[in-house]
Amino acid sequence: MQNYSIFSLIKNAFSNHENWDLAWKDPTPKNEYDVVIIGGGGHGLATAYYLAKEHNITNVAIIEKGWIGGGNVGRNTTIIRSNYMHDDNGLFSEFGMDLWRSMSQDLNYNVMFSPRGIINLAHSDAQMNVYARRGNSMRLNGIDAVLLNREQVKEIIPMADFSENVRFPIFGGLMQPSAGTARHDAVAWGYARQADSMGVDIIQNCEVIGFDVSAGKINGVRTSRGNIKAKKIGLCVAGSTNILAEKLNMTLPIETHLLQACVSEPVKPVLDKVVTFGAGHFYISQSDKGEMVMGGDLDGYNSYAQRGNLPTLQHVLTEGIAMMPFLSKLKMLRTWGGIMDMSMDGSPIIDKTHIEGLYLNCGWCYGGFKATPASGWTFAHTIAQDKVHELNSGYSLKRFNTGYLLDEKGLGTKTWIS
Amino acid sequence: MLHIKCPHCGLRSQNEFSYGGDASVKRPELNQEISDKDWDNFVYNRKSLRGKHWELWQHLSGCRQWIKVERDTATHEIFNTLKADEEIS
Asked: Under a CB-based contact definition with an 8 Å cutoff, are residues B57 and B8 in contact?
């Protein structure tokens, strides 16, 4: 594989950048693989990469019905954080933060990781208490957290509404300084390029039609490009999880919902943090191009549409303008939607299933992008060792049956106030 | 914007409604022994169909009645609406 560096960039400049190697191949599917990963998004590509890198399993195929990185890894708001209160979420996400910090070097691909910090705003004394508690829990797990008062927040984000007569005055906030953003497409492409170079077959335009299961054991997958045998199959299909589960006669604690995001026209640098509104559901950051990247609530009803509805967008942006009034002056450049695998407790599932050789990675709700490396790493471990790693032991499928729910914020399929 | 025909009030915009999820889910009968699996299916497990889907909505800013709506989850086309106590045929 060609190494990307300043020298290769200069060298290729002399030939008008026409002689770069392809970043990944376009193979025809083989009849059999050791592991087949379904879903060529961030999580699927990362899983294949860590299977090859950490477990020396390279006879692997990723099958993707569209093109790689065309789903939620290409549709998110690029926020990376580990500001969770519960141990299972905090330790998993902080493990992921370490992977994020070294990702560009590890993949030889600039993922533009920008640890600019995230601030969750608080709008009441009670909320400040809750944030203090969460911040303390984070620090006990080795995650950086700083509780800010109103003046400190004002110093960092003076463009927010600090006037006297507002419905939701800013009391303070909880900041995780090491959180940030990354270039979402680069993450998918970086993982794809490295996985490909280690022998993983990335098979695009290949839709799953069915599965071969006999005596409780998975034998292979039937696709639009032929049958593929596999001893182990991992599902990383986000919003399509229920569609594949139906083919496996499984009913999961997942509903598919639509989440929208949008960007404004590009403006000069104004916001160098990720900020979330505490009195509703709205988050914002500014991209390197200058666009304000914004998102918020689900559309609120089951949807596979991959495009949003205006009432929700209006609701979300109303919150944004309440928080930062200058946003009302901006023109909207683009809006889009992706379909989320919303789990019933708002936390993901990375686990084995009742079918031997079938592994499940789903339920990422609002937080799939930031989990990409940790999800891939732990899912690869779960598949390779046929055993759940302690980092994803809290993300079991059984927890819904046993009552050990991981209800971090009460963000499940149903939005809080709807 | 969805337009939902409330069986009590007629055609209204989505803004007046609140969503209540899959209408085909049945609460287990309480006069018999209920397994954990049955509760699990009732409380958490959902088919989340792509295509025609019967679901509950509440006409929150109207008559406040719960209704059943048959909607396509991919196109958002609405085919049918029923009162809450009317059975899906």
From this structure: no
- pLDDT at A31 (0 to 100): 97
Say whether residue B35 is in contact with chain A using an 8 A CB cutoff. Answer: no
Q: What is the pLDDT of residue A417?
A: 43
- Identify the burial level of A316 via C-beta atoms within 10 angstroms of its C-beta, where 0-12 means exposed, 13-18 middle and 19 or more buried: buried
| ipTM of this complex | 0.95
In the DSSP assignment, the letter for residue A150 is H
Residue in A257, A297, A304, A353 to test binding to B, most B beta-carbons within 10 Å: A304
Apex CA B55: angle with CA B52 and CA B58, to 5°? 145
User: Do A246 and A76 touch, CB atoms closer than 8 A?
Assistant: no
Residue keyed to tokens 């396509």: B72
Provide the β-strand partners of residue A172.
A122, A149
CA-CA-CA-CA dihedral for A316, A319, A323, A325, to nearest 10? 90
> Is it the case that residue A415 has pLDDT exceeding 60?
no
Does the domain made of B3-26+38-83 have the CATH classification 3.30.2270.10? Answer: yes
Q: What is the mean pLDDT of chain A?
A: 96
Smallest Cβ–Cβ distance between A254 and the set B1, B22, B46 belongs to B46
Task: Give the closest-approach CA distance of B39 to chain A in angstroms.
Answer: 8
Contact at 8 Å (CB) between A242 and A256?
yes
The predicted pLDDT at position A413 comes to 75
Q: Using CA atoms, how far apart are residues A355 and B32, in angstroms rounded to an integer?
A: 30
